[in-house]
Structures are given as structure tokens and as C-alpha cells.
Amino acid sequence: MFLITAPADGVAEPNRDRPCQYTLFVWEICLRQAIWFCQLVAPALRHPEGRPGRPTKIGDIMTDPTSDSGEIETDFEVGQDNIDGTLGPLGFDIHNPVFVISGLTAVAFVLLTLIFPEQAGAIFLAVRNFATTKLDWLFMIIVNIFVVFCIVLIFLPMSKVRLGGKDAVPEYSYPAWFAMLFAAGMGIGLLFFGVLEPVYHMNVSGPLGVASPIAEDGSIIAENVEAARSMGLAATFYHWGLHGWAVYAIMALALALFTYNKGLPFSIRSCFYPILGDRVWGWPGHIIDILAVFATLFGLATSLGLGAQQANAGFNFAFGLEISTNAQVIIILLVTAVALVSVWRGLDGGVKILSEVNMIVAILFFLFVLFVGPTLVGLDGFWTGLVAYTQEIIPLSNPFGREDDAYRESWTAFYWAWWISWAPFVGMFIARVSRGRTVREFIICVLLIPSLII
Description:
GO terms for molecular function: transmembrane transporter activity. The chain is built from 14 helices and 4 strands. It is mainly alpha-helical. The strands form 2 sheets. It has a two-stranded antiparallel ribbon with strand order 1-2. Strands 3-4 form a two-stranded antiparallel ribbon. β1 (3-5) and β2 (13-15) form a beta hairpin.
């Protein structure tokens, strides 16, 4: 969402000096709320008199009630807290506490940010600095645990469990499934940071204390080039590879198991049923879902704002379009319109098609860069980065005893917080499209396929 600049200490940080960026942030929140609202009301719009076949009991949404998957017994009724009806030509079906509280809080947040942009900027910066400088070790340990847990799951007997019961079959082919995995988990940030990071880490940030090949007078230090190049690629692979996707995999797997195999609602709160029991249907569960809404709202707004700025800069370079807040707001509106149409058309008619088109375009773009550009250099860079990643993954994952505090806090901790904020949204989508896969198949594909594509 924010422009990336290099301050005096050599570590890229968000640039919050321009008030227009807060205006963009507010637009992003408003439009993300619109998409979320449409996701809630779209079923009612298509069926104003109620969704056909809507289940009323938890047991009714069990995908295979006759299987031995161990359905959880509870008297909770799906939709018992919902408010549904029609408003003119429109229909709605919303969860009362979660929608009302998160919606009103988001509106209040937007208004206060518009009215007090300077104070809001100071608060955002203070919160970000606290999270990345004081909690960096916690983020890194948590994500490391996720990776180890995913790897262990592959070899446990439960890896043979099928999401949806033993007779469940996959809803989507492998190509369609892979396309949706990639499209759900990767945003505009990959296009921006995927190019920026290797160069920046090589020349400026110095992961693990690797010396920069650029001297203070601008000359090249030849003996530092190879080590800095390898470390720059390794750090980039680390931020976009297994660790981030492990966050998504854990969230998606927990949600899929409790929904498809245990018969609980398709909601983040269901993952906490073993801890909270039936209390997840009360305020503890409401709070969990509200926090998931906020994480999704602000996490996605970051990518949407960054994408608008990047697209505006590209149009400026190619066509001379002025870089301005108005232009970026128009870009956000266009992207949001496409997202709304996708939501309206449903999963098969919208998201699946967009994901497949996205994958085709990505492959064509990759082939263009590979063969039109320096082919051997590109292949060598991939291999060098992969080897360096396997060699440096443990040192890069270690939060203790390092001398690169500025890099670890400004990059790694920020990234893991960003990935975690995306987890409720991406995890729910991955769970939704993964019914019929075994746990082993799910973990291997969610971890490896997107990481290799990236």
C-alpha cells in the first residue's frame, strides 16, 4: 500500500509523508467493504426468497454423513444469528454481531482517518514499528512452527484422510486447482517485490550481514558480488516460498477438516471448536470472526493500494498518464468492479475463469521474459537462487543472535505479519476449492506448487 523508499540506514520502509496515500488507503477499505458486502448478499440477490437447500442444523452440512469422519454433535443451527430479508430489489443475509460490529468499526476507522490523517499516520507507523521490532521473534518462530508442522503432517497416518470423507472426489482438475491456488495467494506484491527484492537485498539491505558489492563512492567491489547476489536471491525465495505458504496451508487445512469432515460451519471460528467448545457460537466466536474480517480487510487493502500505485506508474511511463490520487482511485474502482463481477458470477463462473486466465497470462509473460531476455542468465539466476535458498533457509529463519536487526525487522517480520493477515481470506478460499484431496496431497501441493511457480 505504501511507497517503498531507502532511508539513511539502508533499509526500505514505507513512505507516509504524502497525505494522498491515506486517502488511497481509505478508498481501499471502502471498496473492500463493498466486495465483502456483495459476497454476503449475492446469494440473496439471486434467490430473494431464500437460498434453496439452506441447511439449518450443523449435521445438515456434513458432506458425507455416513462416513466415519467423526461429525461433531452440537445443537447450533446454521444462520441462527443471521438477519435476512429484502431491501427493495435487493436481498441480504448477514451475520448480525460480526457484520454490524466490523462494518461500523470499519466505517468509523475510515472517517477518523480522513478527518485526522496526520494523527492516523503517526498511529499506523507506531503500531507497525512495535509489531516488527518488538514481536519479530514471535512472528518468525510461529511461521517456523507452521513449516515444520506441515512437513510432519505429510508423514503422519492422518495424511491419508480425505477432505470431505473417504468417498469425496475433487471438484476441480489439477490445472484448475493449481491456477486458483496461485491466484488466491499471490497479489500485485509479487510483481513489485519479486523484481525489487533480489536487487535491493543484494545491494542495500545485507541479509545475515552479507557485504554490499557497491562501495560508498559507487564503485563495484568485485569480490562481494557473487555472495551478495546469492544472498539476495535466497532472501527473496525465503520471503515468497515455503514459509508463507505454510501459513495459508495450516489455516486452510484446519478450516477444511472442521467443515468437510466434522460438519461445522465454514467459518474461522470453527477451527477453535476443540479449544472453546460450544462457546465458539457465542461472543468468543464472534470476536474471532470479527478479527478475521479486520485482518482480511487491511491485509488485502495493502496489496490493492500497492497495485494501484504500480499500475499508475506503468501508465505514466508508457502513456504519460499523470501520477495522481484520482488516477489511482479510478484504477482501484476498475479492479473492484472486476472483483464484484467475479463474486456475482460465483466460483465456477467467476473466480475459476479469472484464475485460469491469470495463470495463462503469467506463463506467457514468463516465457516472453525467458526467451526474449537473457535466457541463460535467467536460468542461472533461478538455479543459483534455489541452491542459495536451501543453504540459507535455516540461518534466515533463525530470529536470535543475528546482526542484521534492521533487515530482519523491516523485511522478514513485516512479511510474516502481512502473510498472516492474508491467512483468513486465502485460507478460506483454498479450503473451499480443495474438497476431495487427501491431507498429504493438499499439503504437498499447497506448499510446493506455488513456491516453485514463484
